Each structure stands twice: as structure tokens, then as C-alpha cells.
Amino acid sequence: MHIQILGSGGYHPNERRHTACLLLPDLGLVFDAGTGFFRVASRLRTDKLHICLSHAHLDHIVGLTYVLVPLMQGRLTEVTVYGTRETLSAVREHLFAERLFPIEPPLQYVELTEGIRLGDGAVALTHRRLPSHPGESTAYRLDLAEMPGQPARSIAYVTDTTVDGTYTDFIRGVDLLIHECNFSDALAEWCDKTGHSHTSQVAQLAVDAQVGRLLLLHVDPLLVGDDPIDLAAARAIFPKTELAEDLMDVVL
Predict the structure, then answer these.
(1) I want to staple 18 with a disulfide (CB 3.0 to 4.6 A). Which of 7, 12, 79, 147 is the partner?
(2) What is the pLDDT of residues 201-226, one digit of tens each?
(3) What's the total number of domains in the chain?
């Protein structure tokens, strides 16, 4: 299974990173619709799209406006948006307010419940609320059943939160943890102020939750360069750590 990183940054895009968007092209599944969402339509392998929103901040939802043309062209036949009641209400009432975006795409909205299944039932989608970020965020876990020639696999997507131990069991044992790392350890003082995480605490979370691999994203766009979050510090705690880059293709 492939996971394509279409937006690995946070807050606003910069020359290297668009904002949050991850695509699982074979499942027609997207986590968050930030500015990187413009890359989805050309990479999708299905005509139906499922979008899981972590929360309604603009850097995670603005890309929903980009689905209008693919829907009108017939490249997409159905788009379903999943989120909490508060997130979906914000999208419908504000992002698609007539004066902001006068033509609302024909999206289907599904409030998160336990036991959502995708891909003919082979994929279980569960979620956990994360209250530490302003306005609250939602973590997701995907558990894919064993299929002929493919073992069972699991993924957790956790962004816009301060690591606090409340969701360790939720992500425990996943093959791949995709987690925000907005700040380096040198800027850790900003985490509680903004509801974000820093390098060493995310790496320690990966150890505590006994995950297989760790992929860090949602990097502060003001942190530029090849290593904005001090990858060596993360690997000293959890060696199987990678830093996400836009257009990275992760194979699980």
C-alpha cells in the first residue's frame, strides 16, 4: 500500500511544503485537505474519494474548494467528507459561505461514529478527539484486514496536538505512525502555547506506543532547510523515524 505525502507543512505553505494532505490512492482516501490537496485528482486511482478532516483550521480544509472542477469534469463521481459535527458545520457554514465560495461542490458529509468501514469493509476507520489544540483536533487510525498476498496493516494519523499521553493506547502497535512535529526541541516552549508538538516528545511517544515506524510532518513553515526539526534527536530516541517531504511516496 502506498501513502503519498502531498502536503507536509503546517499553518501556511512555503517554497518547499504545502499544508496538510495525505493520499492513499488505492483506497481513494485522503487525510486532511490543505493546500497540497490540488495534487490529489491527478494521482487518485478511484473515482470516489473519502476525505477525513482532523479539524477545521484553514490549513487543513481549504483544499475542499479544489474538488469542484474534478467533480464537474466527471473525474470524481462522489466525494465524502468525514469529521466531527463541529468540523463539518464550520466547513459548510464558513468555507462554503456564499460570499467566500459561491458554488458549493456536491459533497456528502458524514459525522464521525465508531465502526466506519471503507473498501468493501476491509478497512476499519476509528478516531479519537484531541483537546489540546485550539478548537480541538481528531486523530485517525486505519486498520486494514489481511488480504490475499498482503498482511494486515495499520496506520495512525495524528496532527495538531500536544503529546499528552491520552492517546497512546489508541495508536499502540500501528505499523506506521504519522504524527505532527511542528517544532524542534529548541522551540519546545511554543508547544503548549499553540497546541503543537516537538521532536523528542513525539519520538518518545513512538517508543511508548510500540509503533513500527514514525513519519514526522506538519512542520512550522518558518523552519526552513533540510532538517528543520533535528531528525538526529528523534532517531536517538526512536531510530525508525523519517521526516516527511512533499511528494514522498511511503510504502507500507
Answers:
(1) 7
(2) 999 999 999 999 999 999 999 998 99
(3) 1
